[in-house]
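FW: tagging you since you asked about this chain on Friday. Here's the raw sequence from the shared folder, copied in full. Didn't touch anything.
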Amino acid sequence: MSTFSDGLPQPPSASRSVPPADWTDWEAANRANWDERVPVHVGGAFYDVPAFVAGAEVLRDFELAEVGDVAGKRLLHLQCHIGLDTLSWARRGALVTGLDFSEPALVEAAQLAKQLGVDSARFVASDVYGAVEALGGETFDVVYTGMGALNWLPDLTRWARTVAALVRPGGFAYLSEFHPIAELVAADGRTVVEDYFDRAPAVLDTPGSYADRNATMTATRTVQWRHGIGDVVSALADSGLHLDFLHEHAHGHFFLPPGPRLPLVYSLRASRPY
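HL: got it, structure written out here
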């Protein structure tokens, strides 16, 4: 497994390279890749959109318990992709806004909202760092970020300050994310194959998508970053948010062989004082 594989085992054909001298086009490369993933994800079995439309739950049990009742609350989902998690919160009564840098993904999210009859949902095109401006300084009761999001962002300090600016006084930010420890081990679940403290950007050329490795895609180059849990917590603390909890979970995404358990995902909540 690898941090730089969207949270899923990388195929042998995926390659990681030393960052080139100039990788400043990281956002354009990543956006092109995510734009091409949209039809693969909407039409494939991995996301199973028909099952979602029929009522399937995509949020994890610990997310539902830790976020709590969202009825009537204004919830912002950062890096929302095609909006399944976003609209899951809407089903529970939240007034949702989804934000993502992929416009094709937002088109699908909006169409899905219309299909579900969720009139209150809205979707805004922006990268995370431009969210405050894109939303006109609006603040929210809950700012939610789901799995496989932070590895696409180079600057956690800027991310945390953006999140803090989006949380209203008395509100909170909530993050559920792949655990960096679990992402460093091989498929045997025991052998460490990557360096936890490596913070250099990884430039990858990976065929297809984690949802379908055989999908035909041309924009296969991505740039990703590894962030330790200490990096995330420190960035949020520096932003002025108050850490309510940090939980590690032995379930939630990965599947490892039987044996001593590792943390597979983690979740945290950070609130903004009145």
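FW: Residues 75 and 142 are 5 Å apart (CA to CA).
HL: agreed, and The chain is about 30% helix and 20% strand.
FW: great, closing this out.
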